Amino acid sequence: MKKNRQTADGKTERKDIYEVISRIRQSTSEVAPGVRAAKLTLQTPEAKQEPADASAKRSSEADLSSPLPPDTAPHEPAIAHPPVLQRPVLRYKTFREAREFARLSLPLPREMQTEGQSVSYQWLTAQLKVADTPERLQELANRLNYKDLAVLFPTLATVSKRGPAEQIQTLIRARASLYLYYHGWVTLQFSYPRNAVAKALSDLCIQLEDRLYTFGNLMPARLGRRAKPDLGPGRTVWSDVPLISEIALPNSRHFLTDVAKAAMESNQPLEHFFRMYGIYDDLPLGDAVLARISELKAGQTLDSPSLSKTFFERYRR
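Request: output the structure for the sequence above.
Response:
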């Protein structure tokens, strides 16, 4: 009986164990929908301790492999673009307006002679009356700007008294320059044969020749490197105009004859020769040179070597 009970009990116990195991398997195999089975891994204490470098490397690899949201993406460095140049606002809308401004701001010697300078003449005459001593006259010479210098020769051509004429000649000697020569040369062409202007221009040429001779080693090299643009017919580059004293002094008795002979011997058209020395053929001096050239070609003799006979007869009437 006992054996049978044990056997029976054993079978009963085995039967009960099998039922428990089958129920556990069914319960573990049935998983709720949408939930993944969790995988449990047992880690030893040695596996739990991980080097910092390895964990950092694995985290960086995970960051690169997993895309980040747009708002958490790393910011790319901005590309440096060249600055955009703003277009300057033009002061003058047309080329004509710009040329008119340049003409008014930087007039040519002839333009300053033809434009009304009566206010400047009156101002200079008033200043000469106040400068009654050499010290005051020298102070006046130091205060003259380029516009005031441009009216020295024209004022000298209009004064008739000896005192103001000598004062102006002193101012010219004190402020001798090529800029002053250009205005004096144009004034002589307007007022030819004005003796006071010719004498003051001759003194200025002698003074400038001495200065150019002193710096003669530097001037030719500097002038040779400068480009000489062609401005068209009738245009003169005044910075390249040489002194007329290279041919003859303006107050010389043979001045007109020497200029006419130099023009004939230059083997170039008269307009090129006139442009080279800044001579205007529509002014009294240029007219006298043309008349003297015609007389030389015709072989006529002159009563006065400093004046053309045709020119003298024309203006004597």
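Residues 107-224 form one domain.
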